[in-house]
């Protein structure tokens, strides 16, 4: 500990300068917070009237309740208590369908936010510059958590306003809906704060946080499917167990979230005082004395650095495919209770409901697979910011050799994870039907040109506009919105057409166009070429 820091901690305390840091972090993160909050709250705001219009009568909701009672559907939505309240409450139906998804997106937002303001800043030496000022040892962590708390309350308030008009509840139900998201945000922000003290870099901290989210989703799904106590092990499950907009509505499960958040914050503050700056509590694994021969190129090194993302993507998409496959197996029973509006959304040119479900799930799998490719490109930008890319570029490699190596790595990651997802979907949904399995696998391959277009666009944005990281997230989020919610929100055709996935023809429920596949592949090649030209022309940028 330096003399200056010792004097600060002895005189002003380890939280000295927290207020100034908080104002700095608000200014620095204002656009990040705006777009995330606007996205989650705005999407909820748009979805509320759509679901209310689709299920205007109790009879329609009762019919739909029968389709949502299977273990597979409950695992992807929430406890059966919500289903039992469909007849009396549109709000119960809305919460049942939306809370898991909006809660998961809220968790992602706060995992990334806390990592960005703590471990990532430490890794890039921003925190070192800040700590050269009269700032206490715990001030940066305190400012990050305070900003997270403020953002969580704002997001919860907006979501409460968005759900205020839902039938079947009152103001307290809407407030509980918002508070459930605030509780999720606080839990994952605090858990990520602990992860930031344990890990040696920002990628590991993010991985720990998203890993906790993945476990939370799996535990909630397993508990909800069978109605067991396992749901109580999940931070997402605690919010679901508040039974919002039902006659059993209760606030006290959220107290578990608050208690866990407080405990995690205490642990994070304890750990930050017992570790060296720039190091994690978990020691980094010792590497080899000499690099393998296969690491003597920029491309090989990139694949080595991103192998963690590749394995994470493989495991995630395999589990996702198997889970969706279980729904395809019961698709015909599911369709019996759908409202006319829902059947119209799922109608794919007269195809069976099983093939319609397969077409939807294949598209969602492709979007998730593309996410891991986008994350690989993001890793390239991070290497550039921290200066490690400069060291590689200084070696005898082509000018576009180092940044350009992230495109094949991203394409490989997205392609592999998409194929694995298709294998899981076929294994879980075909049930020995070789023809259906073949169609699912073929549909998985049909999605690849659209995946490549998205990845190539993200790479071109990285090459030409490296500071505009929001572009890659905007592109991915829009494709997700079009694929999963486009029909529900009745988006205009021109807006749907922006997504490359809109041009694939919904195979196997509908025929696909070979021309569209060739055109999309050509567009991907053009974006890739544009990206390599940009990578060759631009200078490295560190901020």
From TrEMBL:
Organism: Glycomyces lechevalierae
Membrane-spanning parts: 32-52, 98-118, 139-162, 174-196, 208-231, 251-272, 309-331, 351-378, 406-428, 440-466, 473-492, 512-535
Keyword Membrane: yes
Keywords (A to Z) from UniProt: Membrane, Transmembrane, Transmembrane helix
Protein name, as recorded: ABC-2 type transport system permease protein
Protein's UniProt keywords contain Protein biosynthesis: no
